[in-house]
Amino acid sequence: MMKTETFILKLPSSGPFYCANRYTTDACQPDGITIVFAHCATAHKELYEPTIQELLRLQQGPSQRNLRIREIWSIDSQSHGASVDTNYELLRKYGPVSLHDYSELLHHLCSSEHLSGHHIVGVGDSASTSAWVLASKLSPSIQFQALVLLEPVTVTPEIEEEGKLRSNLHSQWVSARRNKWDDTESVTVWLKKRYPWQAWDSRVLEMHVKYGFYSKRDPDTPFCIIPRCSSEHELSLYEYEPHSSAGEELPRLCKRVPVHVVFAERPEIIPRKARRAICDSSAGRNMASVSVIPGTGHMAIMEKPELAANVIWNALIGENTYSLDVNARTPSRSNL
Q: Cα–Cα distances in Å, from 222 out to 89, 176, 180, 181, 227?
């Protein structure tokens, strides 16, 4: 059975608190790896629990290949999930939380007493992939065992214009999106009719409604349900500059740390040109492995959490069952 412990930790420099869950089972070993999940924009730590459960199960199976897990962490950034409740008043004064702020949080956790001496594997999802790359630049340096970047949105020099366009399109979409409902049932009905949420695993969607929304806390307005992550804070994670800085750092990171990249099958957000650029070994972006999660779009880990866990596990044990050739001219099931 999976055990969950919740922590509220404080950042020394930027001030806000952040919340984190630690997951273990009786099969966990003290000499195993510690996996740290960092969520994408608008998500929160609980959305990764089906994937975490599967990873903890896999270490007990015949494919474990001497890879053991010590513990798994999943965090809420300063402006997401339960951290919003803790930081509510502070966030009103602090302003938008940037991707650089997010990277400071990741660095703080990995450098804290809780993870001292651990063999850390960072797992990023979409926007948080850039946060992990930026965290690797901070001092003291984190001694990563590996990094796993799911649907990385880092902007390399070859795709600068595409990166700027993507940032603008995200901003337009967020600004036009509904952000107020009468009750949680209305939220569920609305999400189930719209992409990407309609493609999510039912357990993940249920947890998103439970932990990703709350009743508005302003007493001067009528009762309503709103996202915990405001549009303002979501938009700050789409800003171009931090993703570009992460793209510049990526070749240096690949020299120090095994970096595994995992793409969705459908290139919804990251076109094939961007995939080739991110994994361009001639530019120093030498990936330890490149994999794909079959039958998924950009929010792959939300759509097929167990399959995502298996892809991550296989990459870490060196059994790249779901390998992807990003340079193939003709996409197919095996090279997408």
A: 19, 22, 11, 11, 16
b/e code 7-23 from CB counts within 10 Å (16+ = b) = eebebeebebbbbbbbb
102 contacts: CB under 8 Å, gap ≥ 6:
38, 77, 78, 127, 128, 131, 237
The structural domains of the chain, with segments of one domain joined by +, span: 3-177+237-317
Examine the pLDDT at 162 and tell me if it is beyond 70: yes
Token duo for residue 87:
């930081």
CATH classification code of 3-177+237-317:
3.40.50.1820
For the segment 201-226, what is each residue's pLDDT rounded down to a tens digit?
A: 999 999 999 999 999 866 666 789 99
Check whether 334 has a pLDDT greater than 50.
no
pLDDT in tens, 276-308: 999 999 999 999 999 999 999 999 999 999 999
State the amino acid at position 89 in one-letter form: E
Q: In what order do the strands lie in the sheet with 259-264?
A: 3-10, 17-24, 69-76, 33-38, 119-125, 144-150, 259-264, 289-293
